[in-house]
TrEMBL record:
Belongs to the trans-sulfuration enzymes family. Pfam families: Cys_Met_Meta_PP. This is O-acetylhomoserine aminocarboxypropyltransferase. GO terms for molecular function: cysteine synthase activity; O-acetylhomoserine aminocarboxypropyltransferase activity; pyridoxal phosphate binding.
């Protein structure tokens, strides 16, 4: 790897070391080695003056678990570091002195809603990739529309189309690291050039980047990360959560041509804090970083919208993080092997396996450029051979029904192999034209490859193929 690779970790700050150690200071009084679970709604004040100081943001400390909780802060410190965001040194991860440059929330959907609502308001718009998770498509198309924010969908591989949708009211470009489920990987550096010219941030859903293991978009030009911690970060299908990470790279005091603030919700006076301008006054010992976005996401957006994570879920996600690199590597190796095997299988439609590890995939070159070597994501789609489109769709449904080990459910990033037909489930609420724009074909089968023994995954697929053939005879 080159010296400039974002996957070359500094001595003492390796990915696995960060997973296990960063963000948790030993409990000096009781010396508990594991991260304690603070399952409480609120925290007592030391005095009347202390309570007033906390509420006035003159002092940092937990008040109410919706906003701050010591267990949740450990998750936030870890995720900020794993994603490559500016962070305090391990010994300085003290929530009485600094805030993490990440924010944990209730879910991945909550993460993107809270992130965008921190700096966007009625009359604004943003350009988003058309190939996105089905829930993101509906949230952007309908829920944001209700509050006067327009989502403009674009093929992010068509840079001219992206540029053409940007105007004076455009406030962000939204992309997915690896599109769900088509596997399209954007040219981060080309998108960054467009964003810089337009003076807007890039918000990137890095769920499929496996918590920074497979891909670190902040290193390639993204400004804000959102992700579902439910998936590879937790890794076992037990807890729902979301993460927002601030790359501290965007200038929120950017001005329009007339000299007015382009992002007044972040750079301007905060009405709910007596007109204070947070962007001009570093607080909580973060003078060297530009953390005003993540601060306001916490003390304003999360305060008002309330999509908080429970301490118990945060604690469970921390358990998942401690094995993240081991699991991500195993997921990746199995996905590469399964995609290659299916690409030449006689039951699989030729050219239908869409996994970036295959040289035939349109995003193979971007995967080589932007992802950790050997990692191409562990979710992909394929189609079965059939007499026509309807037959292919029916065969896909029958194949899924006949699987024994692989689970048919709506999730990805679980330890186990999961499978689903997106056109009938995750993207069902999109019409045919919208599904096509999102990279969904009627017969597409999406597989999230687990880390069972690869030969056992293949065997389950083979018996499902055979069971379908037996019923057809």
């Amino acid at each position: 790897m080159s010296e400039t690779s974002p996957y070359d970790d500094k001595p003492g700050e390796g990915f696995a070391t960060t997973m296990l150690h960063h963000g948790h200071k030993l409990d000096i009084e009781n010396r508990a080695r594991a991260v304690p679970l603070f399952q409480t709604t609120s925290f007592e004040f030391k005095s009347a003056e202390h309570g007033a100081s906390l509420f006035g943001l003159a002092e940092l400390g937990p008040i109410y678990t919706r906003l701050m909780n010591p267990t949740t802060h450990v998750l936030e410190y870890k995720m900020a570091k794993l994603e490559g965001a500016p962070c305090p040194a391990h010994g300085d991860c003290d929530n009485s002195a600094t805030l993490p440059s990440a924010l944990a929330v209730a879910s991945g959907m909550s993460a993107q809603m809270h992130a965008l609502m921190t700096f966007m308001q009625a009359g604004d718009n943003f350009v988003t990739a058309s190939e996105v998770y089905g829930g993101s498509f509906t949230q952007f198309s309908y829920s944001f529309k209700q509050i006067g924010i327009e989502a403009r969908f674009a093929n992010v591989s068509d840079l001219d189309q992206v540029k053409s949708l940007i105007d004076a009211n455009t406030k962000a470009i939204y992309i997915e690291t690896l599109a769900n489920p088509s596997g399209t990987i954007p040219d981060f550096e080309a998108i960054k050039a467009i964003a810089v010219e337009a003076k807007i941030p890039i918000v990137c859903d890095n769920t499929f980047g496996m918590g920074g293991y497979a891909c670190r978009p902040l290193a390639w030009g993204a400004d804000i990360i959102v992700e579902s911690a439910t998936k590879w970060i937790g890794g076992h299908g037990t807890s729902i959560g979301g993460i927002i990470v601030d790359g501290s790279s965007f200038n929120w005091l950017t001005e329009n041509e007339d000299g007015s603030l382009k992002f007044p919700l972040v750079g301007g006076p905060q009405e709910s804090y007596h007109g204070g301008v947070f962007a001009k006054h570093p607080i909580f010992g973060v003078e060297a970083t530009n953390t005003v976005f993540i601060l306001l996401a916490r003390v304003k957006t999360l305060r008002d919208m309330g999509g908080c994570i429970s301490p118990f879920n945060a604690w469970q996600l921390i358990q998942g993080i401690e094995t993240l690199s081991l699991r991500a590597k195993a997921h990746s190796e199995n996905a590469n092997a399964l995609a290659l095997w299916l690409s030449t299988h006689p039951k699989v439609k030729e050219g239908s396996v869409l996994h970036p590890s295959l040289p035939s995939h349109p995003s193979h070159a971007n995967a080589i450029k932007y992802f950790r070597p050997g990692c191409f994501g562990s979710v992909f789609t394929f189609e079965l051979v059939g007499a026509d489109a309807e037959d292919e769709k029916a065969r896909g449904a029958s194949f899924i029904t006949n699987l024994n080990m692989c689970a048919h459910l709506a999730n990805v990033g679980d330890a186990r192999t999961l499978i689903i037909q997106p056109s009938l489930t995750t993207h069902q609420q999109l019409n045919a034209e919208q599904q096509a724009a999102a990279g969904i074909k009627p017969a597409s089968i999406r597989v999230s490859v687990g880390y069972e023994d690869i030969e056992d995954i293949k065997a389950d697929f083979e018996q499902a193929f055979a069971a379908f053939d037996a019923k057809s005879e």
